[in-house]
Amino acid sequence: MSETQEASNEQAEPQFVIQKIYCKDISFETPNSPQMFTEDWQPEMKMDLHTAVNPLAEGVFEVVLTVTITVKVKEKTAFLAEVEQAGIFNVTGFEKQQQDGMLGSYCPNILFPYVREVISELVNKGGFPQLVLQPVNFDAVYAQHLQQQSNSETSGEDTAVH
Question: What CATH number corresponds to the domain at position 119?
Answer without folding.
Answer: 3.10.420.10
